[in-house]
Amino acid sequence: MLTQPINAWLTRQHAGIVARRGGQTLLRAEWQRHIVTLGHRLMAEPQRRWALCFDDSYLFSVALLAALHAGKTPVIPGHCREALLQEQRDDFDGVLTDLDFALDCPVVALPLAENGPLPPLPAIAPDAAVILFTSGSTGRPEQVIKPLHCLDREADWLARRWSPQLQDATVIASVSHQHLYGLTFRIILPLACGIPFDSRQVLYSEQLAAQDAHQRYVFISSPAFLRRLDRSLRPPACQLIVSAGGTLAWEHAQAAGQWFGQPVDEIYGSTETGVLATRRFVHEGQPWQPFDGVAFSQDARQNWRVRSPLIPQSGGLLLNDKLRFSTDGFRLCGRHDRIVKIEDKRVSLSEIERRLLALPGVVDAAALVITRPERCGVGVVLVLDSEVTARQLLSLRQQWRQALHRWLEPVAMPRYWRVVESIPQNSQSKRAWPQIQELFYAAR
Question: Domain limits at 283?
Answer without folding.
Answer: 202-336
